[in-house]
């Protein structure tokens, strides 16, 4: 149970720290990861909201959080990277569906960024498949539940 809660906390940390970084440093390191490139379909590869700042902050903050939880800085950094890689996959797929950056796509917005780091946890820590599934579901519940509140508090730019 402790592993499950720690891993869900890391998922929230990995995916929430870029949002907080955007609010704390609105113009610093906000270069798009895709360099503004456009795919053959005429839409951006990833979109303007996927930045180097978000990637770097997520990797470092998740590393620090994992170290504090006794899971190791290295594990946390890779966990954060995997969460961001899942988020990039989501963004890429959303652009192919002609959805604007930060447009709502329930499920696609949550599961890749939860599943990839949880697969790492299965491989690295040996957590069971049930823990992987439950952590992904808990992450989905937490982020869909807390996002409207963070929007009302001015932390998120959209309520989803």
From TrEMBL:
The chain crosses the membrane at residues 55-85, 130-151. The keyword Ribosomal protein does not apply. Keywords: Membrane, Transmembrane, Transmembrane helix. InterPro entries: CarS. It holds the Pfam family CarS-like. It comes from the Bacteria. This is CDP-archaeol synthase. It comes from Hydrocarboniclastica marina.
């Amino acid at each position: 149970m402790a592993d499950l809660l720690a891993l869900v906390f890391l998922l929230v940390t990995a995916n929430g720290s870029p949002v907080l970084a955007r609010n704390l440093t609105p113009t610093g390191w906000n270069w798009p990861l895709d360099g503004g490139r456009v795919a053959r379909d005429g839409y951006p590869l990833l979109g303007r909201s996927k930045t180097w700042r978000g990637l770097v902050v997520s990797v470092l903050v998740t590393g620090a959080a994992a170290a504090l939880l006794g899971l190791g800085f290295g594990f946390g950094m890779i966990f954060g990277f995997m969460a961001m890689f899942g988020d990039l996959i989501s963004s890429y797929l959303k652009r192919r569906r002609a959805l604007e950056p930060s447009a709502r796509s329930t499920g696609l917005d949550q599961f890749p960024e939860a599943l990839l780091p949880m697969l790492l946890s299965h491989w690295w820590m040996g957590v069971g498949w049930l823990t992987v599934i439950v952590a992904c579901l808990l992450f989905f519940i937490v982020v869909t539940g807390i996002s409207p509140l963070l929007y009302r508090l001015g932390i998120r730019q959209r309520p989803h």
